[in-house]
Each structure stands twice: as structure tokens, then as C-alpha cells.
Design brief:
single chain; 9-stranded mixed β-sheet; Rossmann fold
């Protein structure tokens, strides 16, 4: 693993490991009613076969190729193959509409696409008609799309020869070359294509390896359920964890997450905070239905776990630790399969209340921070030094400083080359060698970073007070009764909130949750009025595929209702 600085590029790393660990389990997925896996040797042969087939089909160096597929072994095989022939993968969310895919095709100039299902093939064909056509469609499903040149995945992946020739050719790819073109989630407008070089993802891998060294990861099992088209899962689940020998098991989707955790029994996971919020709410709801003595034991166990994590348990709590472990923590952590050692949280702000809850259960929640433009991981909490109210310290090799206006600036190998065909946006983001993240933060005396808000999202009330909507929204959504929340009030005397209650929660219970949160907020941060609205979803355009709320779009959609609240 110490070879990260020596790997010339990602396909060279992956293909070399396939020859080093030919019989080691690598990837597993649900197929034909059972979990079926492939080893590293099979992966290497298939990646080389697909690389040769794509090159023979006319895919050349520098060509952009869209990949629209759920998480599955063919995804990493396709990306490795494309990178090995110097083509540029363009990950696309399976939830994209035809118009979304058309934007990626037009913006990237891609003329080839790889899809996993017949439904995605049909949607990609529609996108191609909107964007001016496709030269080639590779389909993993036994499906023909009229009007398009289609090659079946099976025809590409069947060459049994070893990967030596493809691996040798890949050795010459520069670390500075574009590895992939990953589009931002579009929370602040049209998605922009981020040009990530090989060095950026390799830098993240090296930093992540040093970060998790205290965990002594060996023979781990990782459940991958966040979309591989997102830079977070793309780097951590597709390159870093496989590179240390972790077996990757692809989940069947969020709707099957609870069942998959019980079946796979992962030892490590990456999560977005919303998943932890939902699991916490369900655990609390179940605890509330228990007899009084069980509820009291549960609450004491959580409090004792928090104190233990902070190094200050009471004498009584130390004595009761075995009881807490047997009757509370093991029972609750069995929901995750019973073997989970650590969860890496990223993609959005983790409410400290939620983090402390899982810490109290003995689960290391390693909150981190990053963005697509930086590989994407910039900082993270080490497992042996978690400060849950922060996003941790910079990874090894990352330089970070706070500008005079509070903006977080980043420099190092992890930083992107720029935005695809957007010189002005690139010049704005990359200045004097530093990536300007657009996030506001502060460093403590030990180098731990706190993110307070997005620079452009900061609310300025009519009295001149600055309020962080992310902080208030996070506190609201940590309440079991509130599923989603967006806070507004720019230029107004006070804050208002749009709330989506949790399932089965009425307006009165949601209002009580707001009152509880208001008691912990300063006067200027308190919610004066609120309205209950329908859920923010990917389908209605108010949620990104990675479960981040599109604040600006929510505010536009509910402008009339907010105007009435703030009148």
C-alpha cells in the first residue's frame, strides 16, 4: 500500500493488483437470487478484454464515454478498461432523465455510452436524439436499440487472455492525464464537468490509507450502496478500498439497505448523513416502545458510550460496561450485520447529535469533508481521534488554509485540472495555485476543520445578522419527527422553514420538534414560522441522486408559500 506515490495511474494500479492477487475475492453482487462474486484474476482478464474490444470498436484516446449503470462489477471493469486505452469515463446517474443525459452528452462531447439495462438503453437513445446522436452504445443487457450501433457487453468481455499487454500499455499513462470527467451534482445550477487527473484520486487513496491505518484493515467486507457515479463512492469504493484488498459487495439499492446489511454483514461502510439520521430515528422510535427500565438502560448506555469515547467514563459506567455492551450495543449494532467497525460519513453535514449517538453505541463515525473538485476527500476524522463536531484534519499531502473572508482554500495533488470547457469557472475556482472551495470554515488549534456553511448560501437577515442555514437545517433534520428541512430568510427580519415530516408524523408533532430545536438556537437563528410541504425527491428535481437537497431550487419552487410565511 505504500506504493501509492509510485503508481503511474489508476489502471496500472488495478491491473497490477489483479496479477498480484489472482484468487483474492474482489467484487460481489446479487445475481439470479444469490450473492455471486469474482476474484481479482477474473477482473483483470475481463477489464483487458473490454479494453481491447472498445479499442477495436473505434474508441480512442481522449474520447469521452458515458457510463450509466447501477453499482455492479461491470462498472469498475468498464472504467478500468476505458482508462487503460486512455479514453475518459463520464459517470452518469441512473436516475438521470433523458434531458440530463443529453446535457452530459452535449457538454462532454461523448459519442459512446455504456449502459447496464434495457430501460437505460432506451433512455440513452432518447438522450442521443436530443444531443445529436451516438456512434456506439454498449449494452450489458440482451437488448437492441433501433437506430443505434449496439455492441453487447458479453461480446467485449469474453477474451480469456491475461491482461499483460493492456497492463503494459497502461504503464505509460501520465499521472497528470484526465482519469475521468465527473459532473457536479448541480445543487447550485447546471452540473459542471470536473476533470480529475489520475494523481488526484491516487492522492486521495494514499491519504485515506494513512487515515485508516489505526483500524488495521485486513480481510474487510465493504457494502457499496452510494452511487458509483458520485465522486465520493467513486474514489473510496471503487479505487481505495479495493486497493487494500477489501472485498466490495454491491448493494441492491437504498430500499434493500437494511436487508443487505444483515446478509452481507459489512465491516466498513461509507454513508451520507441522511442514512444515519434515518437509522437513528428508527432506533429511537423502537426504544420508545420498550418498557421504562429498558428505555432507561438504553439512554444510560448511550451516555456512557459517549463519555467512554471522550476518555471520561464514570466508575459506575465502567462497571456497567459489559452489561451495556451485551443488552444494548450489540443488539442495536446487529441492525448493521453485527460486524461493522467504522462508517465514513461524507457528502453533507453530519449533525453532531447524530454522530454522538452512534459513538455512544461504539461505532466509529469518521466524518469527512470534500468536493468533486478535490478528488473528492479533503479532510476526515481519524478513527483514533474523532471530534464529531468537526470534519477532521486534512489528509496527508493536503495543504489547507482559511482565507480572510473565511473561505476554505485547498492545494495539493488532489486538486482537479479544471472544469471541462469552462475556462472562466476554472479561473474563478483555481487562483494562485489554490482551490477556492466556496465553503466557509475554521480550523481549531489541533488542525481540525469546522465547516459552517456554503459561502453563497449564508443568510443575511434584515438586521445584518449572518445565519448559517446548514447548521439550523441539520439540527431540524436530526429530530425524529422531521425528515427534510430548508430554512429561508435572506433580507427578512427572521427565519422561516419548509418542513417535510417523517412518515406518520402530524403537523403538531413537527411543530413540537421545531420548538425543541429553537430552545438550542440563538435568538437570530430561531424559526419564527414554518410550513409543511411535500417531500423533496429526485423525481421532482428537489433532491440530487446523492440525497442532497437542492436548496436554491426548493426556494424557487416554494417562493409563493415562503412569501406568505415571511409577510
Amino acid at each position: 500500500m505504500e506504493r501509492y506515490p509510485e503508481w503511474p495511474n489508476l489502471p496500472a494500479m488495478m491491473l497490477t493488483l489483479s496479477r498480484r492477487w489472482p484468487e483474492r475475492p474482489m467484487l460481489r453482487a446479487w445475481r439470479d437470487g444469490a450473492w455471486q462474486g469474482i476474484d481479482w484474476g477474473t477482473f483483470g482478464r475481463m477489464a483487458a478484454s473490454v479494453a481491447r474490444g472498445l479499442a477495436a470498436a473505434g474508441v480512442g484516446p481522449g474520447e469521452r464515454v458515458l457510463i450509466a449503470s447501477e453499482n455492479r462489477p461491470e462498472y469498475v471493469i468498464a472504467e478500468t478498461a476505458l482508462m487503460a486505452i486512455r479514453a475518459i469515463p463520464v459517470p452518469a446517474y441512473v436516475t438521470n432523465t433523458a434531458e440530463d443525459h443529453a446535457h452530459l452528452l452535449r457538454d462532454s462531447g461523448a459519442r459512446t455510452a455504456i449502459v447496464s439495462t434495457a430501460a437505460l438503453a432506451a433512455r440513452m437513445a432518447q438522450a442521443a436524439r436530443l444531443a445529436g446522436g451516438l456512434d456506439l452504445l454498449v449494452s450489458m443487457a440482451p437488448h437492441a436499440e433501433p437506430g443505434l450501433r449496439v455492441i453487447k457487453w458479453r461480446a467485449l468481455a469474453g477474451d480469456p487472455r491475461p491482461p499483460d499487454d493492456v497492463a503494459q500499455a497502461a504503464e505509460g499513462i501520465s499521472r497528470e492525464a484526465i482519469a475521468c470527467l465527473i459532473y457536479t451534482s448541480g445543487t447550485g445550477g447546471a452540473p459542471k464537468g470536473v476533470m480529475l487527473p489520475h494523481r488526484a484520486i491516487l492522492s486521495n487513496c494514499r491519504g485515506a490509507f494513512e487515515l485508516v491505518r489505526p483500524l488495521d484493515l485486513r480481510d474487510e467486507t465493504y457494502l457499496s450502496f452510494l452511487p458509483l457515479s458520485h465522486s465520493y463512492e467513486h474514489t473510496v469504493g471503487q479505487y481505495f478500498l479495493p486497493s487494500i484488498g477489501t472485498e466490495i459487495v454491491y448493494g441492491r439499492g437504498l430500499e434493500h439497505l437494511a436487508a443487505d446489511m444483515l446478509a452481507v454483514r459489512p465491516t466498513i461502510m461509507t454513508v451520507v448523513p441522511r442514512v444515519l439520521d434515518v437509522i437513528r430515528a428508527r432506533i429511537l422510535a423502537q426504544a420508545a416502545r420498550q418498557p421504562a427500565w429498558r428505555r432507561a438502560l438504553f439512554e444510560r448506555a448511550i451516555a456512557a458510550g459517549e463519555q467512554r469515547a471522550e476518555g471520561s467514563p464514570t466508575v459506575l459506567d465502567r462497571a456497567l460496561h459489559p452489561l451495556f455492551e451485551r443488552l444494548v450495543r450489540r443488539t442495536v449494532l446487529a441492525r448493521f450485520g453485527g460486524r461493522l467497525r467504522a462508517a465514513m460519513s461524507g457528502g453533507a453535514r453530519l449533525e453532531p447529535q447524530t454522530g454522538r449517538f452512534f459513538t455512544g453505541l461504539g461505532l466509529a463515525v469518521m466524518q469527512g469533508y470534500g468536493q468533486t473538485e478535490a478528488g473528492p476527500v479533503i479532510t476526515a476524522n481519524p478513527p483514533d481521534g474523532i471530534r464529531i463536531e468537526t470534519v477532521g484534519r486534512p489528509l496527508e499531502g493536503v495543504a489547507l488554509r482559511i482565507a480572510d473572508d473565511g473561505e476554505v482554500l485547498v492545494r495539493g495533488d488532489l486538486v482537479m485540472l479544471g472544469y471541462w470547457n469552462q475556462a472562466a469557472a476554472t479561473a474563478e475556482a483555481l487562483r494562485d495555485g489554490w482551490l477556492h472551495t466556496g465553503d466557509i470554515g475554521a480550523l481549531d488549534a489541533d488542525g481540525y476543520l469546522r465547516i459552517t456553511d456554503r459561502k453563497k448560501d449564508m443568510i443575511v437577515l434584515s438586521g445584518g445578522e449572518n445565519v448559517s442555514p446548514a447548521r439550523v437545517e441539520g439540527m431540524l433534520m436530526a429530530e425524529p419527527e422531521i425528515f427534510q428541512a430548508v430554512v429561508a430568510g435572506d433580507g427578512r427580519p427572521s427565519l422561516s422553514a419548509l418542513l417535510v415530516p417523517a412518515d406518520g408524523v402530524d403537523d403538531r408533532a413537527a411543530a413540537l420538534a421545531v420548538s425543541r430545536v429553537n430552545q438550542r438556537l440563538s435568538v437570530t437563528e430561531r424559526i419564527r414560522r414554518h410550513a409543511v410541504v411535500p417531500a423533496f425527491t429526485v423525481e421532482n428535481g428537489l433532491l440530487t441522486p446523492t440525497q442532497k437537497i437542492r436548496r436554491a431550487q426548493v426556494l424557487r419552487t416554494h417562493a409563493e408559500g415562503l412569501a406568505r410565511l415571511q409577510a
